Amino acid sequence: MFPTSPRRALVTGGSAGIGKETVKALVAKGYEVIVAARDAAKGEAVLNAIRAEHPGAQLSFHALDMSQPDAVVAFAQQVQARWDRIDALVLNAGLFTPQLRTGVTGHEFMFATTHLGHFALTHQLLPLVEAAPAGRIVVTSSVAHFFAGGFDFGSLREPSSSTFLMVAPFVAYGRSKLANLLFVRELARRLQGSKVLVNSFHPGSVKTEIWRGTPGLFNALISPGLISEREGAQTQVFLATDPSLAQSGQHWFRKKIEQGSPASRNPELAQRLWDYSEQALGIRRFGRPQGGVELVRARRA
Prior knowledge:
The chain is built from 8 helices and 8 strands; from the N terminus they run E-H-E-H-E-H-E-H-E-H-E-H-H-E-E-H. The chain is α/β, with parallel strands linked by helices. It has one domain: Rossmann fold. Strands 3-2-1-4-5-6-7-8 form an 8-stranded mixed β-sheet, with helices on both faces. The longest helix has 24 residues, at about 165-190. It is globular.
């Protein structure tokens, strides 16, 4: 059962695309929503527009770069100091970079932002999700996780600079989405028997800002088949709010469970990625932060 008091959601990447539409839908359902995204000006503008449509909406915006471990910890500490529970932790932030580069942790930027950033944030905020009567964790993955094939750990710190036919960036993007799905499978396994449900989803081919880094010809080819941001957000909202949901550790598309790639269903790969992520971020006991800044920046060997 959901609580009778206002439910609370935290949405990363909530200032644009399907994240923005999810925030709108949650507000319409009476949720208090904490929005985190990189661009403060855009974020505040989006929240003001939502407030104009929904007077009295409980909204707060926080500028956050998910590729910065120290920023993730600082943000999480602010959330912990102000709120006592999170009913839905919506890990939606994502990006595509047309040329591969590394972030401050020394890892390929899409992987660092989309996987490591969300891994770190979940570690910090899991106690608040567990405090909710029916906590949900929803992760935006993609059918692009098939592009990764397996999982090349060796190139996480030495990404190729090639942009030939966008192959290397698309493979890296697919790997970041595969990491999202493996994270969901393993986290759900670890939380088995708890009240928290963890699921990922593929939103469909959505017309969002994520395609701004891809070639114009590619955009022209895919544009006719793209769906609206609102349509793309529907499964995310369903997984975050539907009281009938009982499944955990699943991957969804159009509110139905999808099998996913063979790699995404490999428990040994999920465990290996989990161990790698904990080591890269200096995490001792996942979901049990020890206070202070626990994350450490991984250095190049």
